[in-house]
Structures are given as structure tokens and as C-alpha cells.
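The instructor's notes for this session suggest beginning with a concrete chain rather than abstract definitions. Hand out the sequence below and ask the class to guess, before any prediction is shown, which regions might be ordered.
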Amino acid sequence: MKISTRGRYALRTMIDIAVNSDGGRNITIKEISQRQNISVKYLEQIVSVLSKARLLRSIRGAHGGYRLSRRPEDYTVGEILRLAEGGLAPVECLDTEENLCPRRWSCSTLAFWEGLDKVIRDYVDSVTLADLTRKEREARSGGEYCI
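After discussion, reveal the predicted structure:
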């Protein structure tokens, strides 16, 4: 499985908005574009998908932009990646809720693919946007730990 640019950029966009919208500030596509080095045109497509799925709120006007719809703790990486990627299954037959592959009853590798799929789902669904936001803030502050 390989996560596409779209999936990586969607995740980076969500992290960027979470980190930079402290105090309820709206974040513009232009700001994200500059910080993340992603073209405005590509970001518009990604933000549109995130907004339609209600992961982001779009605010119009002079102080408009985007903000998270929920707290960072309430998003999983899996939710964001599935939305951007359309699915994370390692093989096509596991892309849908019901496996419709004509070989599913005789496939000697199906159990392996199902196990891999479960490991992927469990991992991406165990990491939240808040977890990644914390790591981003630590990286920005030099990763120093103080009491």
C-alpha cells in the first residue's frame, strides 16, 4: 500500500490548520500553501473534499478561511486518509464492505490480506490528529522537554 500525494497533503493540511488556528483563527489556503509548499490549486481540491465531508468548516468573508469542525482528538488519521484516498485496503477485494471476489472461497492468500488490512486499520485509527499536532509542535519548539 502506498499513500498518494493527495492523502499526504490532506493530512498535512489538517495538521497545519490544527496547529495554526489557536484562538479560533481561520486559516486561509494561501497560508497553508506557503507553509506546506503545496500549490493553491491542489489545496483547493483537497480542502473542498475535507469541507464537503464536514471535517473542516469554511468561513467566508474578510477574515474567512478554514477551521476544524471538531477537536483534534476527535479525528483519526484513518478517517482523513480514507476520505482522501478512497480506501486503504491492501488489495481490491477488500475495498468494499462485502468481499465480492469470485475467488474469495478458494483464495489461499485472503487470510493474509485480511490480517494486513486489520493491522493497517487498527494503526491508522489509533492515531489522532491531536497526536500528530503534538508532534508538530514539539518539532517546531526543537523537541526540548522541560518541566
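Then share the key points. DSSP finds six helices and two strands in the chain. The chain has a mean pLDDT of 91.
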